[in-house]
Amino acid sequence: MLRRLSVKDNDKGPSLFYTKFINFGTEKSDDMNWNTGSLEEQVGRWEDQRDIKNLMGIYVNHIIMNMDAEIFDALWSSRDDVCYGDNDGWYVGPDAVRGYYQAVRARNALVAELLQRKFPQEIGQRTAEENFGIGTFRDFPVACPVIEVAEDGETAKGLWYCWGSQAQVLSCGPTASWTWGYYAADFVREGNGWKLWHLQITNDVDARCGTDWGQPAQPLPELPEFAPLKDFTMPAYSMARPNRVQYSGRRPLTGSPRIPEPYHTFADTFSYGV
């Protein structure tokens, strides 16, 4: 655990303030220079951090605008070992990750179709393109960024927290929920800039509005006009395994995903991937 200490030296002339980073829990205590390298290298790392923040901002805006089907080709790496994980498992490889986003789009299209049938006078004359996204609202702003760019400049790591909310249509009809959790990602530099390599989005809270966050929500009665949504399933995980247990009154104190730390090359650090 890193902690910054401020120390005042009153013994030698004017007051002198300096900071040290002490690595508690070990016998080693070192000054850590976070601004190594030439001015050009330091500016380059700041620009890399800005580009990575923008990449995640673009990712979130794709979700808000229901542009899930475009996310993979626009924002993900071309590598074969990409992976996307949530609370319950992983999609591993380009086909699986792309398939996840395509399934989200397919579900949004089904929701629009069902709403068009239910409200023919209001939206029945619209095209499928005009109705796409209706009934679905996902607001997932990310904050509290911790970003580390590798010293070799080839990879980077980032951790964010999201206080989100969404409105969606389920087999019981329209519902609203709170969705809070972590975004943790590894990035890789490619010829056209920074790209997502590994991404995990794990929720602490996914609770229907008006219900107790610490207790499972009681199911609502299903509505026949939305019954097809009950049968819609997302693609099977490449690897099903719990990555994070959601909050409940019985959950032990659960820390964040590991916070990024300075590193030289990806071989020297941990992975946010599977």
Task: Write structural notes for this entry.
There is one protein chain. The protein is an alpha+beta fold and 274 residues long. It folds into two domains: 1-32, no CATH class; 39-268, Nuclear Transport Factor 2, Chain: A (Roll). The protein is 26% helix and 32% strand. α1 (39-64) runs antiparallel to α2 (68-75) and α2 (68-75) packs antiparallel against α3. The protein is globular and about 65 Å long. The two termini are 24 Å apart.
State the separation between the terminal residues, measured CA to CA.
24 Å
CATH topology annotation of the largest domain: Nuclear Transport Factor 2, Chain: A
Q: Find the structural class using helix and strand composition.
A: alpha+beta
Our count of helices gives 6
Draw up the topology in text:
Elements: E1 2-9, E2 16-23, H1 39-64, H2 68-75, E3 83-86, E4 89-92, H3 94-118, H4 120-123, H5 128-131, E5 137-139, E6 142-149, E7 155-170, E8 173-190, E9 193-208, H6 228-231, E10 239-240
Parallel strand pairs: 3-9
Antiparallel strand pairs: 1-2, 3-4, 4-10, 5-7, 6-7, 7-8, 8-9
Helix pairs in contact: 1-2, 2-3
Question: What is this structure, in a nutshell?
Answer:
By secondary structure, this protein is an alpha+beta fold. It contains 6 helices and 10 strands, in the order ββααββαααβββββαβ. The chain is 26% helix and 32% strand.
List keywords for this structure.
274 residues; alpha+beta; Nuclear Transport Factor 2, Chain: A; 2 domains; eight-stranded mixed β-sheet; two-stranded antiparallel ribbon
